[in-house]
Amino acid sequence: MNTITRIRQAMPFSDVSIVGEYLSLGDFLLAAIAAAVILWIIKLASLRVAVGRMTPEEFKNAYLNRIIQRCYMMFPQTTFSFAGKTFTRGMAIRVTMKDKRKFEGSLIDMSHENVICVLAESQISADILDNILEIIELNSEDRGADL
Fold first, then answer.
1. CA 81 → CA 129, 135, 136, distances in Å?
2. Is the dihedral of CA 102, 120, 93, 130 positive or negative?
3. What CATH number is associated with residue 107?
4. How far apart are CA 3 and CA 8, in angstroms?
5. Residue 10 included in any domain
6. Could you report the per-residue pLDDT of 20-63, keeping only the tens digit for each?
7. How far is it, in rounded angstroms, from Cα 113 to Cα 110?
8. Which run of H or of E encompasses 27?
9. CB of 95 within 8 A of CB of 134?
10. Does 66 map to a domain?
11. What mean pLDDT do residues 69-73 have?
């Protein structure tokens, strides 16, 4: 007794033919689309559960921390000198650009291409040292004054 005969006998519907029945290209495409939709629904549900556990402030902080970690990788130098002063990571600084724009924040780092990265209140700014007129270290009473 061959294998196909054994399978036919074991099947509850013996009138179903196994030989010659193949999946068409349409069946494969339908299965692939269904699998992609199911996977998308599962990912969306898991994201909602993860985000649902966080408050909007926690989600914002987690997102900001990921961006800062990327900045640490892109800007590896923790100290640099500008106009005779040495600045280190985490210092509160005020930067004055040559076009007279000013912003203040926490120094993240500097790259090998003379680009500094500063974390301000509402943005992360990266600027070339050649475009910077002045960098001033701030103490707590200087913050926010004269912007």
1. 10, 10, 12
2. negative
3. 2.30.30.100
4. 9
5. no
6. 567 778 888 899 999 999 999 988 877 766 666 767 777 777 77
7. 8
8. helix 25-52
9. yes
10. no
11. 81
